[in-house]
Amino acid sequence: MTMPRSKWLTDLTTAAGRAVELAENIKAGAGDYVAVGAVQPADDRGRGWYRYSKPASRVRLEQLENAVLAYRAGPQDKSHPVTASEVDNGVLYVKTGITTPSDSQYLFVERYDRRKQLEGRRDGLAGLPGGSLAERFGEHRLDPIPLQPTDNTRVSREQSAAFRACCAPGLQVVWGPPGTGKTHVIAEALAHLMASGHSVLLVSNTNIAVDNAIAKLVTLNRPPSGRVVRIGTPAIPEIARNPDVSLTALIQARQADVQRRIDECEEGLKRLQNDPRQSALTDAVRRVEDFGEQRYRAAADRAENRRRLQSVKSELDALEHRERDLDSALGQIIASAVMAEWAVLRAAELAQLAEVSRLGDHLQELSSLPLVHRWRQRRLARRVRSLHIEQEARRIEATRRREDFETEEVERYRGLAEPPSVTADDDPAELRRRRDTLDEDRNTLTQTLSELARHIATVRRRASDAQAKPMPVTGDEELLRKADAAGIPQLLQRLPELRRAAGTWRQELDAATRRYEELTKLAAKQRREIGPKIIAEAQVVATTLALLAMNPAVRTKAYDFVIVDEAGACLIPDLALAVGIAGKGAVLVGDYLQNGPILDDAERRDPFTAEHFSGDCFKVFGITDPRTARGVSGCAVLTEQRRFGRTVTELVNRVAYRGVLEAMSDTGGEIVVIDTEDLGSNLAGIERVGKFKGSWPIGALIAQALAEHHHLGAERESVGVVVPYKEQVRATTEFLEQSPVGPAVEVGTSHTFQGREFDIVLFDMVEDGRGQFASFESGAGDFHLSTLRLFNVAVTRARRRTYLLADTAAFRAAKSGPLAEILRLHHEHKVIRVAARELLGVGSSGEPPALGTPARDVYDALSSYVKLIDIYDQVTGIDPILHRIDHAKTAVWMWSPWIGQYQRLQDALIAAHGRGVAVNVVTLPERELTQKTLASLHHFEGRFKGRIIHMQHMHQKIVVVDDRHCFVGSQNLLSVAEGERDRRKEVMLEIDSGPMAAMLLKHERSTDLLKDVNCPKCGKTMRCVNIMSRDKKRVWLWRCAVGSGACNGEMAFTDAPRPHLRGRSPAWNR
């Protein structure tokens, strides 16, 4: 019979549903994916692997389940699924298919993974039956731990109770501070439960806790493949690469066939990607582009224009020459034709003359006949006479025509031809045929000349067009000569053929890529089907609480036992879900003095959700200190500390554990306090963004120095940097990103380091005596409890040494708690104090600390970054500064609030600017100066042509020369007069350090101060800066001017947060 669910479980399920609604209300932005950051190819790990550019701790590893790679614009158009992921030495690596482009790739994760987790948790809680261990959890009731001893000799006598608690039915708790063997007990319990045939779920809020336990289990038990399954992205590489444990590797083993086809396809793709067709085109295009295709083509076009113009001109010259020849020939033919015509006319004239002469002779014969005969022949005589007259008239007409033709035509062409000799014997018909032939030749030649003229006109137009085109310029000939030597013309001729070949290659590659993508989709489908089967067959499933909620195959599997590690950091609903799916027994393992659970802001503001989600599991069972822990029958207590040495054990005993911890090892556990006292506000001043939160430059510098010293040293020690505030996380991370250690050295708040271990830990407390730790009061509420937990986590991470970075003033200010106890331990010579100033100055003797000491390690780390040249007073400090300015090569920055009449320093600045050195002076605005210093400022402004920036309320005194030489201290350099340097005690430190100079310039926003920003009101260039507090944040503002007659326009620096206007005055809003 099904038992009814308790009201507590029903209300908790309702609260879990409410959390989903709250998540839906606060989600923002479009798209299913959000960019995590850039990735670069990790060729050392093989094809398809990429390295995330930031520390792995910045990524929630559960979100990698459906992660993709894509270009920065997003995965909407094209993306490549992540098929594997692992963390190695603090660096996240992801794997995709080989078709993923290697350039400009970004890692994207699903935006709404948080909501999916909440939905899975809600559904999981809703599916828990009445009578489950979750209800016992809700009743705040633990089951007694069995008293029978265990025969496991690998656990100590104290650990035996914790071991029995992990293997017993019901609900138990194991409390153990860091280093007391919780992970070892969990691994032993897993091995025992497996040997007993039980199924077990191991979960934790962190990946590292799960992986540490599984790594120990694998070492102890060497289970068969698939018996232990790790779901998610492991935080340690030996688990990620274990083919018998990693779910990803187990799935791949069952995909042998499709993987073989994918491998074959990959080989084909590799061959195609290395195909010379594409490389030939790429090389040709590159060579052409490197040479300058556009310049070459323009020069070649101009040269071709000149060649064509010359060709057209040559053609035109030939045509015009032929035209002249033909015209001359035509004139000759015309002259010959005219003379032939004259010959025809002359022949006709001679013929008429012969006829007239013949008729005359005939008349004369008739006239000489006797009278009788003449009478008889009178009619004939009349006809002959008539014919004679007619022929004579014709002869006269023929003569006239010939003479007219001679006058009009023959004389015109007499220079070209002479009239031929014509006799009466010449055949007129022959003369006419010769004339007609010449006329035909003339007509033919005339037509030829007409066609030639039209052709010449066309060629002249072409010549005009060619003349209008660009002609070669200076340098074209040399450029073309070089192009010929480089084979550019031949390459350009080959490009079409190469493009055709590359097009064919592209088609082949696209087909192979489609086949590859089809196979990868098939493999992804198989993974989704195979994964649940592997989980169902596994005896031990290990994952995080987030993936337990998000993965139905994990959530719905039947488990005999559930072990929750780091339970103190888990939310109540997550724990209820985990213990609720246990069929026989569940155990919560952790430490109530490590970091507690974190509620989402929306859940914290919702009363119903906050009521059911708040609190930690130890408090639920009344375990609030070692005494109550020992008094609860269902709680096993671990107190034998094996990770760190006696000093850390004594510290945390005094601070948190009330003396119950017992150090079982004398090795390791050194505590070194790096004291920042007397380093000055520019180095060790905290820029706060709230009551306690903030950042300081010295923390980032020392973190980078120590990280490189230890991690890159001969021992290759692991290093972690713990800080209390996100502002310092960003500042330190920016430094380490430029360092050779890169993301291998993790930086984060204490929540990032829960359950982690490192050889070396730097705990940068960002503490100057007015911070969170100096203000600690024992038993003063939740805030001070969280402070204690933060400290406790930070100082219990290191196996060998913990560095604490703070100002001694913080230890003196602390009335109780961690800093007060550290001070006592120092007085007892158990904690080492290292004065940063003394190390930088190497003491009065100039000798470094002794070899093998912690102080020497700090000295060696800092010496490569900061070299303290000397410490000066008000008399000795001026000459070294003058020397640096006189020898400046690139830039001088000087922050000096007041300007006086000290001419030597002013002259040095003016001379440096005259040499081309970029000189920038930052000083107070006019309204904050006295009458005397105002006159000095005006005098200096009249002589100095460099940049002067006025900063309101400034007090810093800094000089930075050539981005390396730094002077930091109390002396206002430009205001002291020659005879006044011995009246007031001053101090100035000269530091030779590029990183220090970069830090100071960045801290003082030098890049922004160099910008020319125009006033939004009057348009003038703004040269006044103010720093204001808006919405609890420091905002840098440009001000147009300060003083009478100023428009007071302002503009925030580009990265300044926009102020919230609600509640401000109308004047402020305007």
TrEMBL record:
Instruction: State a single Pfam family of this protein.
Output: PLDc_2
Which segments constitute the PLD phosphodiesterase domain?
Answer: 950-977
Taxonomically, the superkingdom here is Bacteria
Q: Does the keyword 4Fe-4S apply?
A: no
Its Gene Ontology molecular function terms?
5'-3' DNA helicase activity; ATP binding; hydrolase activity
Where does this protein have coiled-coil stretches? 302-329, 502-529
Give the record's family classification. Answer: Belongs to the DNA2/NAM7 helicase family.
The molecule here is called: Superfamily I DNA and/or RNA helicase
| Organism field | Stackebrandtia albiflava
- Biological classification of the source: Bacteria, Bacillati, Actinomycetota, Actinomycetes, Glycomycetales
